[in-house]
Amino acid sequence: MKAGTRLKSIVCDTEVMVIRGADVVVECGGAPMAEIRPPAREAIDPARASGTLIGKRYVDAAGTVELLCVKPGQGSLSIGGVALQVKEAKPLPASD
Amino acid sequence: MNLSLLLQMAAEAAPERIGLVCDGRRWTYGALLTAARGAAASIAASGCGHVALLDESSEAAPIALFGAALAGVPYVPLNYRLADLDLAALLERIAPAYLIGDADRIGRLSPEGGHRIWRREEFVSEAQARPDTRAAEDTDAADGIAVQLFTSGTTAAPKAALLRHGNLLSYILGTVEFGSAEEREAALVSVPPYHIAGISALLSSIYSMRRIVLLTAFDPDAWLTLAAAERATHAFLVPTMLGRIIARLDAGAPPDLAALQAIAYGGGRMPAELIERALALFPATGFTNAYGLTETSSTVALLGPEDHRAAYASADPAIRARLGSVGRPLPTVQIEIRDEEGKPLPAGERGEIYVRGEQVCGEYRERSALDPQGWFPTRDAGWLDAEGFLFLAGRADDVIVRGGENISPGEIEDVLMSHPAIADAAAVAVPSTEWGETVGIAVVARPGSAAPSEDELRALIRNRLRSSRVPERIAVLDALPYNEMGKLLRREIRKIFTR
Question: In the sheet where A26-28 sits, what is the strand order?
Fold first, then answer.
C-alpha cells in the first residue's frame, strides 16, 4: 500500500488516498477496500456505517497508517476490525 | 499523487460554491474542474511536452495548472517581464510547448519552436468547450513533474527547478486543512503567476476552499479597490507591495478594509519600520511572515500573528528582534544551519540554511542539489535563536571575502540602517588587488535628510564592528535597485563600484 494509492470502498462511495502506508488491509463498512471498484456493491455492515468525511485524515492507533478521505460515503474505516480515528488538525496561519 | 486532487475535492464537496473571481467573472469549483478537464484533453491532443503561460494573472492560470496536471504534462509559467533575448532562450528550452498568453510575442521570439499557441480567451473557450473523453483519475501513482519554474539566473543561465506532484501535495496537505475557510472568506492574490507564491496561493486557497480574488497585475490603487469591493479577508504581499499600499493609505486613500483579517508576506527583506507601521495601521489584522523558496514548494518557516504581536509589544530586545525573523520551521520541515564544511552549527551562529522535508524538491532539470541525506542547501545565510526562530542574513553568495575573512553584508547593513538619516543600505563585495575583495556600501538618505558624510559612515562602522568591515567604497543613491518582487539586485550595486 504505497503513498499515493487510491482505495475505493466496495460498499459505498468512500475513496481514500494513502498518505502513509503499511502492509495492511483497510476496510470500509466492514469490507476490504480495493483499488478497482467492483461493478456490484456489497452490503454494508450496519455496525460500521458511521460514515467518512471528505478532507479528514484517518489514522490507526500506532500512527503507521494515514489515509485522506477524497470522497465521502456511508461506511466507516477500520483495519483488522479496529476503527480508524480522525487525526486532529494543527491549524497553521495562511502563509500564501 | 496528482495535484488535480485538490480541485477535484473542492468540486466534490461544493460544486456550486464560487472558487475564483477575476475581472468580474465568477467561477464555481465545478466550472473550474470542467475547464481543467477540457484543458487536459486539449493539451493531451496537442502532443506537446510542456504547458507554458506567458501572461498576467487570470483564470487561465489555474485552468492551465490543473489541466496540465490532469494531462500529466509539466506546467511552466514564464516571466513576461524578461527581455526578448532571455525569453527566447527559455522558449527554445521548452519547445514544442502548448503556450498560452502573448501569442504575438511568442510567434516573434520562437517562430521555429513548433509550439501550439493560444491567446488567453481562445484557451479559456477551448477548455470550457472541449469534452474530456479520457479515462479520469488513475494518474495518482506516478510522481511526475507538476510545475517547472525557471530561477531568475542572476549569475548564469536560469535553472529549471522541478516541482513534483508529491512535493506540492505534501506542502498543501501538511499545512492546509481541507475546506477550513468559511464561505465569506476571500484571498486577494496579486503575486505574478510565474512566482512560486502565485502557484502556492492558488493551491492552498482551493484546498481550504477560500475564494480566490485575482488581481491581474499589482497596482496599489487597484489592490485597495478590489480588496474593498470583494471584502477580501486574506492577502499575500511582498514587502514592496505592502510599502506601496501603505504609501497610498498615508496619502489619504480611505478604502474599507474592515474585512481584512490576515496579511501574509514574504519574498524579500521586510524593513522593520514598514512592518511596525503596518502593525499600527492594521491593529486587528493578523500578520504572517513566510519564508520559502521555489525549490521548497513555497513556505518552510513562518512567523505567525501571535509572534508578531508579542514581539511588537515586548520591551525585551531579544523578543522584539523576532519581528525581523522568519519564525519557526513548519512541523513537516527540518532546518539546520551549517558551516562551510557542512557541519551543523549551534544556535546563534551564522551559516548556510539547509532544509529537508517531503515538500523540498531541490531538483533541477540539470541535476539534483540534495545531499545524500536529502538536505537542500538553500544558499541563504542565516541563524537560529535559542527558541528556534530563524533569522535571514542574505545570500551565501553575497558574503564578502576580505583577505580570507568572511563578512556578511547583513551585519554592515544593520548598523547602517540604525543611522537616523539612512532610509536604505546595502553592502557588496568590491574587487581589490590587495585583499581580493573589500566592502562597498550604497546608502539612500531619508527624505528631508542629507546623507551622512563618508567619514561619519566609516566611523559608524568602525565603532560598532571590526575595522575589516569599514567600507572602502561608498555610493549615495536615490534608491536601491530592486526587482518587481522586492529582491535587492546586488549585482547592479556591484556594477557601480566596478565601473
Answer: A31-32, A26-28, A77-79, A82-83
Is the N-terminal amide bond of B255 cis, ω within 30° of 0?
Answer: no
Residue type, B154: T
Rounded to 5 degrees, φ, ψ at B140 are -70, -40
How far apart are the C-alpha atoms of A75 and A82, rounded to whole Å?
14
Residue of B nearest to A14 (CA): B12
Q: Looking at the DSSP assignment, which residues form a beta bridge with residue B352?
A: B338, B381
Residues of chain A contacting B9 with CB distance shorter than 8 Å: 54-55, 70
Q: Judging by DSSP bridges, how do beta strands A66-71 and A57-59 pair with one another?
A: antiparallel
Rounded mean pLDDT, B439-463: 95
User: Is pLDDT of B298 > 60?
Assistant: yes
Residue at grid coordinates 493539451: B43
Helices first, then strands: H and E counts in chain A: 0, 9
In degrees, to the nearest 5, what angle opens at C-alpha B383 toward C-alphas B380 and B386? 155
Place of cell 520559502: B292
d(CA B52, CA B68): 9
How many angstroms separate the CA atoms of B244 and B249, rounded? 9
Number of H helices, E strands in chain B: 16, 24
* pLDDT reported for residue B433: 84
From residue A66, give the alpha-carbon distance in Å to each of A13, A57, A88, B137, B372: 19, 7, 12, 21, 27
CA distances from B479 to B307, B358, B424, B445 (A): 31, 40, 8, 9
Which of B208, B230, B213 is closest to B13 using CA atoms? B208
The half-sphere exposure of B270 on its side-chain side, counting CA atoms within 13 A, is 30
**What is the ipTM score, two decimals?**
0.94
| Superfamily of chain region B4-308 | ANL, N-terminal domain (3.40.50.12780)
Sign, Cα dihedral of B154, B155, B160, B164? negative
Question: What is the Cα–Cα distance from B43 to B317, expressed in whole angstroms?
Answer: 56
Averaged pLDDT, A80-94: 91
Nearest to B13 among A17, A54, A96 (CB): A54
Residues B222-269: tens digit of each pLDDT: 999 999 999 999 999 998 899 999 999 988 867 789 999 999 999 877
Whether chain B has a CB inside 8 Å of the CB on A36: the answer is no
**Portion 53-92 of A in contact with B at CB < 8 A:** 54-56, 68, 70-71, 89-92
CA distance A14 to chain B (A): 12
pLDDT confidence of B155, banded at 50, 70, 90?
low
Helices (H), B252-406: 272-281, 305-313, 317-320
- What fold does the segment set B399-498 form as a domain? GMP Synthetase; Chain A, domain 3 (3.30.300)
CA torsion through residues A6, A10, A15, A18, sign: negative
